[in-house]
Amino acid sequence: MDMKLYHAHLYFQSQDIDKVKALETLARVSSLFHEIEIYSSPVGPHPLPTLELHFYENNYLAAKGWLELNQGGYSILIHEETGDDVRDHSENIEWLGEPVPIDFGFFDLILKRPDLRIHPVKS
């Protein structure tokens, strides 16, 4: 049985990049996250730069707890990664801090241009 994959998007302003790099360093030593990506400008449906942390369901509570402890006033979106982008960013999501508006128009665009997809669809 495959484990569910989750993403946490920590949104930041460009001028906060040093703070996020410090957080990224902390995250790298954590066994909770299997992948970390940093986007220093808005990407896809996300209107702000984001630190993206990936983790599996067996680490969900620990990862969420770590994010709560290290939130530092940032807005964080947590969602399951199912391949259904609209659902993933709108249903059963959790926000730590103030919600950030998601650009759902981007998902319409990738239906026409799948090459713009940030994460490939699992086969």
Write the layout of secondary structure elements.
Elements: E1 5-11, H1 17-28, E2 35-39, E3 50-56, H2 60-69, E4 75-81, H3 85-88, E5 94-96, H4 105-112
Antiparallel strand pairs: 1-3, 1-4, 2-3, 4-5
Commentary on this structure:
By secondary structure, the protein is α+β, with helices and mostly antiparallel strands. It has a single domain (5-116), classed as DOPA-like domains (Alpha-Beta Plaits). The protein is built from four helices and five strands, in the order E-H-E-E-H-E-H-E-H. It has helices at 17-28, 60-69, 85-88, 105-112, and strands at residues 5-11, 35-39, 50-56, 75-81, 94-96. A five-stranded antiparallel β-sheet has the order 2-3-1-4-5, with helices on one face. The protein starts with a strand and ends in an 11-residue tail after the last helix.
Give a brief rundown of this model.
This protein is α+β, with helices and mostly antiparallel strands and 123 residues long. The protein has helices at 17-28, 60-69, 85-88, 105-112, and strands spanning 5-11, 35-39, 50-56, 75-81, 94-96. The protein has one domain (5-116): DOPA-like domains (Alpha-Beta Plaits, 2-Layer Sandwich).
